[in-house]
Amino acid sequence: MQDNNNHGSSSSSFVERIAEKLSSAANATRIYGEPVERSGVTVIPVAKAAYGFGGGAGKKTGDEGSGGGGGIALTPIGYIEMKEGTTKFHSIRDPQTLLKIIAISGVVTLLTVRSITSIFLRKNR
Fold first, then answer.
1. 7 and 67 belong to one structural domain
2. What's the rounded Cα separation, in Å, for the pair 108 and 27?
3. What's the CA gap between 52 and 19, in Å, rounded?
4. What percent of the chain clears pLDDT 90, i.e. is strictly above it?
5. How far apart are CA 81 and CA 87, in angstroms?
6. Calpha distance 97→107 (Å, rounded)
7. Count of structural domains, the chain
8. Residue 108's CB: how many other CB atoms inside 10 A?
9. Among residues 5, 8, 82, 106, which is most buried (max CB within 10 A)?
10. Which of 48, 66, 45, 64 lies closest to 56 in space, CA to CA?
11. What gap in Å lies between CA 118 and CA 125, rounded to an integer?
């Protein structure tokens, strides 16, 4: 019983170390970026951060091991413009969003046309 508690705590401390490393990578400077000032206009880049991690440990007769990993994704979403005492957020459009909308619309249109066609074919019989 004592061995399991120690094993669990070493596993959780391992996961905690991974979480600390990832959270330090997703700090405000990386998310907001360094401000850039030109001709009285300050621009601050803004990104969205998503991170995840996992870990585990195992034990069988004669063997014991643990492992884990994680990752972070920073996606630019816009910028903050500061000019003449005013602040405005400008979003950056993701070109993949438009492609996804077009693809989904095409599938919905195809399914709708097929359904309408099958309804008319049944009525004509």
1. yes
2. 41
3. 8
4. 24
5. 6
6. 16
7. 2
8. 10
9. 82
10. 66
11. 11
What one-character-per-residue DSSP string does 6-51 give? HHHHHHHHHHHHHHHHHHHHT-HHHHH---EEETTEEEEEEEEEEE
Q: Tell me the pLDDT of the chain averaged across its residues.
A: 79
**Structural domain boundaries, residue 112:** 93-125
Q: DSSP 3-state assignment of 70?
A: strand
Query: Does residue 17 share a domain with residue 50?
Result: yes
Task: Give tens-digit pLDDT for 94-113.
Answer: 778 888 899 999 999 999 99
For 124, the 3-state DSSP assignment is coil
CB < 8 Å & 24+ apart, contacts of 51-57: 51/22, 51/23, 51/25, 51/26, 53/15, 53/18, 53/19, 53/22, 54/15, 55/11, 55/14, 55/15, 55/18, 56/11, 57/7, 57/10, 57/11, 57/14
Pair of tokens at residue 53: 């991690």
Provide DSSP, 74-114.
EEEEEEEEEETTEEEEEE---HHHHHHHHHHHHHHHHHHHH
